[in-house]
Amino acid sequence: MIRRSCLATLCITTVVAVSGCGSDSNNEMVFGGDPVTLCVRLPEETSMVVSEVVRAPAGADLKVQKIGLVGAQNVSAKDAFIVPLGSGRSPMGNTPYPPAANMTWEARVPAVNATIKAGEDANLLLVVSRSGALDGSATGMRLDWAGGSKTNTTSYQFRSVCGGA
């Protein structure tokens, strides 16, 4: 298992998002990159925004139905948002909730019934909380849209303390 600090998580999320979105050569939806396990620092009784980037296929809009965690243990997802990327917005990494002033966060819309335009990138933002003393985990983030669903290849470890990089 790979453990990463919150700062390393931000860097990895951005790298995975950018590299994953650059490979849309087969006109399919792109969601995540190579499998990776991220440690997200999430102290007990707090919330965190977990972030991923998705690219809609070039030939079709995606109408979002739901964003959630797969295989979640000892954590729950409270709210989900999307932010179309562009207009100078860059992907948010994993960050404490609510985030400090952030151009991407300020442009969020509720995920349910939101549309990601064909060929465009969007930042998926999921508010995750841990209510007990036990560490939490999830085997991925799942995006359901009208006509399909996909789970990214990122596993999450939600811990009070993440080990060194």
Give a description of the structure.
- The chain has 165 residues and is mainly beta.
- The protein has a single domain (6-159), classed as Sandwich (Immunoglobulin-like), CATH 2.60.40.10.
- Helix content is 12%, strand content 43%.
- The strands form 3 sheets. Strands 1, 3, 5, 6, 7 and 9 form a 6-stranded antiparallel beta sheet that branches. A 4-stranded antiparallel beta sheet has the order 8-4-11-12, with no helix packed on it. A 3-stranded mixed beta sheet has the order 2-13-10.
- Strand 11 (140-145) and strand 12 form a beta hairpin.
- The count of domains is 1
Query: According to CATH, what is the class?
Result: Mainly Beta
* CATH fold call: Immunoglobulin-like
Give the integer mean of the pLDDT values.
84
Strand content is 35-45%
Low-confidence residue ranges: 1-26
- Spatial shape: globular
Distance between the termini: 12 Å
| Corresponding CATH superfamily | Immunoglobulins
Radius of gyration: 15 Å
